[in-house]
Amino acid sequence: MSKFKLGDENFPALFQAADHASLTAQLSYYFALKSYLFLLVAAALISFYYPTDLIGALASVSLFLITLCILIWLKVQKPEDIWYNGRAVAESVKTRTWRWIMKAEPYDDDVPNEQSRKEFLLDLKSILDQNRSLSAHLQSDKNNGDTISIQMLNIRNLPFEERLNIYKNERVKDQANWYAKKSLFNKRRAKQWFIASVVLHAIAIGLLLWRITNPALSLPIEVVATGASAVLTWLQAKKHNELNSSYSLAAHEIVLIKSEAELVDSDKALSNFVVSSESAFSREHTQWTARKNV
């Protein structure tokens, strides 16, 4: 393992703060959504088994009140927006950081070191200014590190060949593996949840046909239908199919990017390669964020 490996802890403090805010908001959003869907099914189940029982009715009402509170919380707090804004800031900072340590435009050797540092810091400030709504969610203890870490300086000062190898292994290869794994993961999850939805719908249809043959039967059709709707809602929220397509496309694009690395033979070529690669990495995230806001 290279001693110049650039871990998350070596990136600017703004990256770490935005990354933490994004992950926290993402966990909160999905926890709230899971709780909402689970409680809806539980309320329907209690209502079915205890239709005339006072305690059962009170329990159902309580659960529906809790789900209402969850909906209000999601609307007011908007954890999904914090999640995406935090991710946008973190990825923007990461892209700028890689361009700076690789001496890619606008931070190449044609610019004096002190000026390149100032431009880098101004770019990070601009990223934060464009996402001021995120500021309230950035924890101060995650923002007390260095803006330019020792590891960043060490890599920037390496010879051209070493910087190229680090970029190929630590950035391009890492992104290729990440997108490939995420594509397969979302493909499997999409299939699993689709099967679950089909099974629940089939059960509901079967129960309806059964009740037609015997109207006196009391069957949990509404409960199963609520469960099927919950599965569909979860599948739509997770966007497994869209993510699978998006990540698969990005993974194939990165394969082409990796082949371009063989043609890099100078600092200028490295700068162009890094700018092109980072634009490709940013494009996938920007497109996904745009689709989310539609």
Automatic annotation (TrEMBL):
Superkingdom as given in the UniProt entry: Bacteria
Coiled coil: none
SMODS and SLOG-associating 2TM effector domain ranges (all copies): 12-163, 167-288
InterPro entries: SLATT_1, SLATT_3
Keyword Transcription: no
Spans traversing the lipid bilayer: 29-49, 55-74, 193-210, 216-235
Keywords, in A-Z order: Membrane, Transmembrane, Transmembrane helix
Keyword Transmembrane helix: yes
Name of this protein: DUF4231 domain-containing protein
Species the sequence originates in: Pseudoalteromonas tunicata D2
Phylogenetic classification of the source organism: Bacteria, Pseudomonadati, Pseudomonadota, Gammaproteobacteria, Alteromonadales
